[in-house]
Amino acid sequence: MNMYAKASSAPAHAGKASDNRKKVVEFEDNRLAAVVFGQHDRNLARIEQRLGVVLINRGNRVAIEGAPDRTDIAREVLKDLYEMARSGRAIDIGDVDGAVRMAEGLPPAGSSQPTVSARPAQVVPAVAGDMKITTRNRVIMPRTPGQGEYIRNLSSHEMVFGVGPAGTGKTYLAVAMAVARMLAGEIDRIVLSRPAVEAGENLGFLPGDLKDKVDPYLRPLYDALYDMMPAEQVEKRIASNQIEIAPLAYMRGRTLANAYVILDEAQNTTPMQMKMFLTRFGENSRMAICGDPSQVDLPKNTRSGLAHALEILDGVKGIAITRFTKHDVVRHPLVGRIVEAYGDEDGR
């Protein structure tokens, strides 16, 4: 028996718009279908909200009614969610939103209202396909087409730039890929770094040694690691120097071989700092450089090393650049609307 019964099409109910269509999707496993539907069918309700369709479930069957392009996308979303459930994942609202974004191609940032696309439905392969990162704690799959491109680049290129607004998963996915490669024995260690540039605040008065003072800058990297691995393993690997988290200034004079090296907040480097970092690249190493050009905290009239690097390295063999947009924001929908509002103000 196939995992999914062939989706059927039928005329819409009387009283509905004449251009509406109905499709039916049938799942093989009732238990997994219940995971897809969510508690009190909340996942189905979210799909209805995002796509402007009507979903009616009976047992392991879901009837989808709406505009033809919307019903096609809803069918792909349901199939993608079933793949997630089949892989053992619990499905939350974020997964539903991600599946919708992947099936739509480019939805409006943070939109909670259904949008009728002016273009034909863009259907992508199931997100549980070859675009996934497996770590000790979870399996991570892309929630936007931009994230899918980023994961492919991280898998296939030695050096990858992830550039775009906050909330697009640039650093999170890079850390996930680094952890996966370390667990697979492909690299010996992970080096995580970021420039210690203050975002309008002065932390120099804080007590403690240098590590205590720079830890606040590095906290997002710790958070990503703890999401990928059990806390005790993170601490053990940090203690054994398998995982190193250090300010950018500590990179000078080193050659980093057999390592996965990640530079976060790269927009706050100067051109000389960026060149210094990039030339640390050693044998059997990978690098990911993550940054948001709209959030530069450098002194006035100081050029960002990220912007400079993107200009001169574009097209260099072995280097890939993924440019995220407001459509790739995967945090709370309000974050997407904030990014969009600030982009409008800046003329972007």
Q: Which characteristics define this entry?
A:
12 strands, four-stranded antiparallel β-sheet, six-stranded parallel β-sheet, alpha/beta, 11 helices, disordered N terminus, 348 residues
Task: Give an overview of the whole structure.
It is built from eleven helices and twelve strands. It is globular, with a radius of gyration of 22 Å. Residues 1-18, 106-129 and 199-203 have low confidence and may be disordered. 41% of the residues are buried. The strands form three sheets. It has a six-stranded parallel β-sheet with strand order 9-8-10-11-7-12, with helices on both faces. A four-stranded antiparallel β-sheet has the order 1-2-4-3. It is of the alpha/beta class and 348 residues long.
Briefly characterize the structure.
The chain is 38% helix and 18% strand. By secondary structure, the protein is an alpha/beta fold. β10, α9 and β11 form a beta-alpha-beta unit.
How are the strands of the biggest sheet laid out side by side?
9-8-10-11-7-12
| Radius of gyration from CA coordinates | 22 Å
Largest sheet: 6 strands, parallel
Helix share, percent? 25-40%
- Specify the number of helices: 11
For the terminal residues, how far apart are their CA atoms? 51 Å
Number of strands: 12
Rounded mean pLDDT score: 80
Low-confidence stretches: 1-18, 106-129, 199-203
User: What's the order of the H and E elements?
Assistant: EEHHEEHHEEHEHEHHEEHEHEH
β content, as a range?
A: 15-25%
Structural class: alpha/beta
Shape: globular
